[in-house]
């Protein structure tokens, strides 16, 4: 799940792959975002900066490209922003560093407490979906940081998307703390706080604007690159086949064109589908991707018609007519996990219909392509 | 921007009017404005916008809501289908 500023980072990563935050490399007190401490009834609490530094931005960028994303965590626990008092608000966050950074960067000039849950380095929404950003963790963390001794009120502000894992009335019953759900996006927090903890209807809606959709593309590309390159290498090798036996010169000549067509379908199925999502026909992602693949094939066919040399013969042209939409459709379908509005029931239905068609197109297309090698 | 809508008539969301106390928590936590509260009674006004995240049922103090909550992620669905129980996405 992904898109919203606070919660998103491509398809939800499995919590099992993440380093447990309790084994974080450094004590919070030594972390670069910690700027001193605040004295409380339970001891010193690290104070965090509200300005993001270059290293924070670089870290976010790297996580977007799947570099170190599974270990991009902060130590769970209590943090201070500004000079909070026992009456200051308590904001709850996940220990994915991008979530934590988005939150603290919105709190400039304010006094507040941040209680970071142990979500195994996963963002709020995805962790809530898995239950790690959940009722048990909230109640347990309250105890662990002795929040009841630090603040005199009994209110916690949680990101709205945490509601998937947290039961507000259960937290109240088990801990006495009232849960108030803040806005979906951290950038709306200042307005929410200034309005006396009131979120507008717009602040409560999850959108999936172009900016968010495009931000999720790199991690999807990196995740699927190995499979795409493997298929490309297979095509390159098989391209040497022909009437007179195997020829490595032919593998390079025909193969490079085949790899170009395959990788362009892979790339377009991902990038164009994400960018043009609202405007592509159909509701299922696989249909949207198939249109992208078909459009790409038509571009290639136009080139063939004008200049020739791309397909060479009709079985090869027919093969790409099937393969390009199938590949793009599959890539687009996998973007459901990154999107912010697909239901499990919908994805179950979509995959049941689309995957057999994609496989059939792929298999028949591969057979036609092989036939084309010998013509 | 055109509205993004997923497949119609698929979601498992159900509201039990008998149990509903009209507190409005579901409408508050829902990220897709599926609910509306009028005169102390909650209604599902946009069922097809539901993404089955489960936040409403999780936060309904009257247990009036039911939904098969899950993540709409094709990669997770496929790996589960291939390997039995795969990663939860």
Can you walk through the features of this model?
The complex is a heterodimer of chains A (375) and B (89). Chain A has 13 helices and 7 strands. With 375 residues, chain A is mainly α. In chain A, a hairpin with a 2-residue loop joins strand 1 (34-40) and strand 2. Chain A folds into 2 domains: 15-204, Rossmann fold (3-Layer(aba) Sandwich), CATH 3.40.50.11600; 210-373, no CATH class. Chain A has helices spanning 54-64, 97-104, 124-130, 135-144, 147-150, 168-175, 189-194, 210-215, 217-238, 248-276, 285-307, 314-333, 344-373; strands spanning 34-40, 43-48, 77-81, 90-93, 112-116, 155-158, 178-181. Helix content of chain A is 49%, strand content 9%. Mean pLDDT of chain A is 92; it is low at 1-10 and 15-27. Chain B is of the alpha+beta class and 89 residues long. Chain B has one domain (14-83): 2-Layer Sandwich (Alpha-Beta Plaits), CATH 3.30.70. Chain B has 3 helices and 4 strands; from the N terminus they run βαββαβα. At the A-B interface, helix 3 and helix 13 of A face helix 1 and helix 3 of B.
Tell me the CATH topology of the largest domain in chain A. Rossmann fold
Most residues in contact: chain pair: A-B, 52 and 43 residues
Give the rounded overall mean pLDDT of chain A: 92
Shape of chain A: elongated
The Rg value of chain A, from CA coordinates, equals: 25 Å
Write a short abstract of this structure.
With 375 residues, chain A is mostly helical.
Spell out the key features of this protein.
heterodimer; A: 375 residues; mainly alpha; Rossmann fold; three-stranded mixed β-sheet; two-stranded antiparallel ribbon; 7 strands; 49% helix; elongated; disordered N terminus; B: 89 residues; alpha+beta; Alpha-Beta Plaits; two-stranded antiparallel sheet; 3 helices
